[in-house]
Specification:
By secondary structure, the chain is an alpha+beta fold. It has helices at 2-17, 25-31, 36-47, 51-69, 75-81, 87-98, 102-108, 158-166, 218-235, and strands spanning 133-137, 140-149, 177-185, 188-197, 201-203, 206-213, 246-251, 261-267. α2 (25-31) packs across α3 (36-47) and α3 (36-47) packs across α9.
């Protein structure tokens, strides 16, 4: 995990240095040698909030301190500087975080809600016995439903999962297992949900490290991804294949509590 902490610290440093520029999630993920999907999950676990929320709150914190400390501030310039297209959108976001409007911040010298950058420490945890299964698969396809999860989503690919069921795409499948793949698209993630078929999203032949879970709680899943990448795979001297998508495999019927599902990490 120490290696992961070093990498996330470097990413935080990069964000802070480039906070006024458009930040590319794909670039941030590459700095941690992760897919965008894994990066968004692991960042949420380590930092405690999604990447988009962290960037937004840091910008609004810096905007507020600038309004408090500088004289003759132009609100329109501050609005544009911190990435808002108009003053009304900036005011709404500012009020949501600080409980006051930007103009009040200028006039009354009030308290603000300071959202600080994280400070990391290393802790040593006990040894674990982790079930690991290694498999090989030939090229296959995932036929069903696909959608895009943007960096602004509070939970990676949750909207795609919701759309999968709301569209009725699940009713068109004839399978006892759902296959899900996550593909990098710059700042976004393409999520494909469906069954194995002769057509659809292609998954090249690969070897996989497989880990089983019995919960879909986001905090636990995000923590598991972090442990897989920074603890469990390095302990087995296994390297992730960064050019392949992550795949998850679920039972088609997920109505019962504690059902088992599988994370498959492509390996070299």
């Amino acid at each position: 995990m120490y290696n992961g902490i070093q990498k996330i610290e470097n990413v935080i440093d990069y964000i802070e240095t480039n906070i006024l520029n458009e930040l590319d999630c794909d670039l941030l993920a590459s700095k941690m040698q992760l897919s965008v999907y894994e990066f968004r999950r692991i960042f949420s676990f380590i930092v405690g909030c999604p990447i988009s929320e962290y960037i937004r709150k840091r910008k609004l914190t810096l905007a507020a301190t600038e309004l408090l400390t500088k004289e003759n501030v132009d609100l329109h310039e501050i609005c544009e500087k911190y990435g808002y297209s108009n003053l009304s959108a900036f005011t709404r976001a500012f009020r949501e975080q600080h409980g006051i409007s930007p103009s009040v911040c200028i006039q009354d010298n009030p308290s603000i809600n300071l959202f600080t950058r994280p400070i990391f420490s290393v802790s040593i945890s006990g040894r674990e016995n982790v079930p690991l299964k290694l498999i090989k698969t030939d090229t296959f396809h995932i036929k069903g439903f696909s959608g895009i999860s943007s960096i602004t989503d509070s939970c990676c690919c949750e909207d795609v999962w919701n759309a999968f069921y709301e569209s009725g795409a699940d009713k068109n499948l004839c399978t006892d297992k759902l296959y899900v793949s996550y593909h990098n698209l710059g700042n976004n993630v393409k999520c494909c949900i469906g069954e194995k078929g002769a057509e659809g999203q292609g998954i090249p032949a690969s070897s996989w490290a497989c880990f089983t879970l019995n919960t879909v709680d986001d905090d636990i899943v995000n923590k598991t991804y972090s442990k897989i990448i920074y603890e469990w795979l390095p302990s087995a001297n296994i390297k992730r294949n960064e050019n392949m998508p992550t795949v998850e495999v679920y039972p088609f019927d997920m109505s019962e509590d504690g059902f088992e599902w599988e994370i498959r990490i492509p390996i070299e």
